[in-house]
Specification:
171 residues; alpha/beta; four-stranded mixed sheet; three-stranded mixed sheet; 7 strands
């Protein structure tokens, strides 16, 4: 009697499992996919990667260490600090925050807004004057990280071109 109950239980479980398998196979979205389009023999991550971190960065170095900041993040470099924009032989790469902490004597940051970085909003005259007269290298930062500052845009810009820029930035 016990063997009959066990057998009927196994049949019931088997029946439920096969029903679940059939339902899963019927609703499988992968089954409905078409074959991959385009050239599947080429890795797109290797062919569509035109960016080069070093070429898109300014290198700051001092005291055996260096860091990378985005191009156009360096707002001012006094003549006496020009050599800091070259790579020191054997320098160790460190984060911007570490580099800033080690080189506070000659490095200064100016916090900018997103609109200022995009060139939509001008800097205050006092800020511009302070940057221009600074004896330190001045780096633009946004939320304490270095950021490129695009050139100021003309306010008489046509609405069409600002829509195009917004579409470009959204990509």
């Amino acid at each position: 009697m016990r063997a009959v109950k066990s057998l009927s239980y196994m049949i019931m479980v088997s029946s439920k499992l096969s029903q679940k398998l059939r339902m899963a196979q019927q609703s499988d979205p992968i089954r409905d996919l078409e074959p991959a389009g385009g050239n599947t023999d080429v890795d797109p991550s290797k062919t569509n990667n035109p960016r080069d971190l070093v070429k898109n960065s300014t290198i700051l170095s001092a005291q055996g260490s260096l860091t990378l900041v985005p191009k156009q993040a360096v707002l001012h470099v006094p003549d006496r600090h020009q050599e800091r924009l070259a790579v020191e032989r054997g320098a160790k790469v460190i984060t911007f925050q570490q580099f800033l902490a080690r080189n506070r004597g000659w490095l200064r940051t100016v916090e900018v807004t997103r609109d200022q970085a995009l060139g939509k909003e001008p800097f205050a005259e006092a800020t511009l004057e302070a940057i221009k007269n600074s004896s330190s290298v001045v780096i633009a930062t946004y939320q304490k990280g270095p950021i490129s500052v695009l050139p100021q845009k003309d306010p008489e810009e046509s609405p069409e071109s600002s829509e195009t820029e917004q579409a470009t930035l959204a990509q």
